[in-house]
Amino acid sequence: MKRKLVSTSRIISVGWLDGILEIEMKDGSLYRFF
């Protein structure tokens, strides 16, 4: 999955592939939405 870097206080990057949205947080958490 390719992620795009974003400029926010809590999120590092956001990616989308095959209907799955991923959000990578600065604290190391990774959230997936189906």
Architecture overview:
The protein has 34 residues and is mainly β. It has one domain (3-33). 0% of the residues lie in helices and 59% in strands. The protein has no helices and four strands. The chain has strands spanning 3-5, 11-17, 20-25, 30-33. A four-stranded antiparallel β-sheet has the order 1-2-3-4, with no helix packed on it. A hairpin with a 4-residue loop joins strand 3 and strand 4 (30-33). The chain is globular. The two termini are 14 Å apart. It comes from Listeria fleischmannii FSL S10-1203. This is KTSC domain-containing protein.
Tags for this entry?
34 residues, mainly beta, 4-stranded antiparallel beta sheet
Largest β sheet strand count, sense and barrel closure: 4 strands, antiparallel
Which regions have little confidence, pLDDT < 50, spanning 5+ residues?
none
Strand content: over 45%
What is the string of SSEs from the N terminus onward? EEEE
Spatial shape: globular
Backbone structural class: mainly beta
Number of beta strands: 4
Output mean pLDDT: 96
Percent helix, as a range, is under 10%
Number of helical stretches of at least 4 residues: 0
The count of domains is 1
Protein name: KTSC domain-containing protein
Organism: Listeria fleischmannii FSL S10-1203
